[in-house]
Amino acid sequence: MSKDLTTPMLLSQPHRRYNALSGEWLLVSAERTNRPWLGHEEFPQPDDLPTYDPSCYLCPGNVRANGERNPRYDSTFVFTNDFSALRPDSPAASFSDGLLRAESERGECLVTCFSPRHDLSMSRMNAAQARAVVDLWSTESESLGRRFEWVQVFENRGSAMGASNPHPHGQIWAGNARPREAEREDATQRRHFEATGHNLLIDYAQQEADGPRDLGSDDDWLVVVPFWAAWPFETLVIPRRPVSRLPDLDDRARNSLANRLIGLLRGYDELFDEPFPYSMGWHQAPFDGIQRPHWQLHAHFYPPLLRATVRKFMVGYELLSEPQRDITAEEAAERLRSAINAADPAVAQPGG
Ligand code: H2U
Ligand code: ZN
Question: Can you give the pLDDT at residue 348?
């Protein structure tokens, strides 16, 4: 039996776990989920969307907020965000006055439509459709990476995570500054590489494979509830061979990624029997032309829900001291694994 499951502290006592990737600690308070809840409840997302919505600004042929008309696309579709947070032409400037500092930032923001079908979330796609999304992430990363150092691919799914529209879509923001998460992960991975000569996440994947938090890995990918998960059903997706950036994934790794993602996302939807909200995104090495053998590509999934209608709030202690979670990562993994196994593939592929 795994050491993790025979260590009483990890199972049932308040303790702190170390996040080897962010370099931070978090508090785990198992057995706290039974407390009564009289606070805010989430409304489940509707599960009966039309295949086309005339009022959706992402559906093919429809007009967007800026008056432009989307093409009648039949696979994926990418456009520059009409309300971009970063612009390629911002004038270079800086400001400094004692402790007050600011710098201009250039970049570009894309909106990425995953499917022409308004109702076809990734959890309902077949392998070829999900593979098209993987290729889209990779192609757009490569092209933005020629102009910007940091390329952040992400998706907000569900209104609980701030998505503005149920049409399956994500975003990519690219800029030249190295944001907080990039700096942290670069430092922890570099330290591990310098100390051991190994890639941190490949070592981690080796340690987790077939363990109590593994959600079903294959030769190419590990899908895991990380030991240090902060969000209740947080997951991490890691290639098992060295890969620093999305465009470096080969054909086989892309196909198996498409299948792993479909499996995970169907499991998420199965867990509370509703479209499961999350923020997900890829962390890839900065596109600065430098070989970074310490940097391993990976995706984070951060879903907010603790129960079907109750979300985990990262508030008081979490905001002011450090993240805290109520159910252990091992319990979350057990429940997610059952949901993944129970998800019925026949139901999950309507029409294709
Ligand atoms: P989110 O659902 O993750 O917010 O992504 C949708 C993005 O689409 C959002 O950033 C953009 C918003 O700025 N958008 C357009 O670019 N054009 C539109 O017509 C509406 C929304
Ligand atoms: Zn739509």
Answer: 43
